[in-house]
Amino acid sequence: MNAPSPEAAPGRIVLLTTSHRVAPGLLSWPAWQALRTADRVLCADGAHPQLPYLREAGIAVDAASPTAEELVDACAGGRTVVVVATGEGEPALTDGLARLAGSGRVRMPELELLPASYDLPGARLLDLVQVMDRIRAECPWSSRQTHKGLAKYGIEEAYELVEAIEDGDRDELREELGDVLLQVVFHARIAEEDPDAPFSIDDVAGGIVAKLVHRHPHVFGDATATTPEEVKEHWLRTKAVEKQRTSVTEGVPLGQPGLALAAKLASRVRTAGLEVPLPHVEGIGYELLALAVRAEAEGVDPEAALRAAARAYRDAIREREGRADKEHGDPS
Fold this sequence. Notes:
Layout: E1 12-17, H1 29-37, E2 40-42, H2 51-56, E3 61-62, H3 68-74, E4 80-84, H4 91-103, E5 110-115, H5 124-138, H6 147-167, H7 170-191, H8 201-214, H9 217-220, H10 228-243, H11 258-272, H12 284-297, H13 302-327
Parallel strand pairs: 1-4, 1-5, 2-3, 2-4
Helix pairs in contact: 5-7, 6-7, 11-12
Domain NTP pyrophosphohydrolase MazG-like: 145-220
Protein name: Nucleoside triphosphate pyrophosphohydrolase
InterPro entries: 4pyrrol_Methylase_sf, MazG-like_dom, NTP-PPase_MazG-like_N, NTP_PyrPHydrolase_MazG
């Protein structure tokens, strides 16, 4: 049996995809092999970030945007053509190739999708920063926002996140985490424009990275911790040195909800080993204070406990309303 002539071989099309979130030129070894052995390399985007690095490596790239038919013809004779895809991919080209393959009238070359670079974990955060930059510059509402004007949204989003957690709704949790993250990126973007003390999202991220490393010597240093309690001791000890506080109450935000505030103060007192009796004063506020301290000592979040009880109360109200409607003959 005779082997097919080179002219009859259908050839090969390689669609090379790259991530704009990875530094140009950092391609996988299979990608470089495909580029170096290709008979022709095409790229429709003359400003593609990979082009300078490909040409520096001696890869000849034609700035061309062929149709599916032209690309198939270019593979005639067993040739390999690599298409360096743009950031959006090549939907028109791939759709055209699919139509040709489905027609049954054309002998199709071998088709290969070759990822040339991959996103690292967290890479989509770069997209968020870029989108926020554009919104801040072009949106009539976003461009006028200030830290003070956005403050209420941060509180609202935090409460909605807590609600999603307590409801156990995974889809809602993912969405609310995104809303909270947006608040962080939005405030950091506004902070870049401060004329006296600007800072960026990189400064924010760099600060929290440094803090986490410093406060986890059992992970990044020579200290040891085998229990959550020992980890907390490391954290509080390091934090006390950093802040140089003279009271365990320093750093406790007084504007937080009352039960959370009481529990936080009780936690600080207990962790510091202090004996501080509760004020013996009559009144609902002091009764709530005692309940919050008791809850914290038992490992219960008083805010979460009260919210759970309030939801049960809400359900009971709705049930009673439903019975009342039926008793009064409400058809709804």
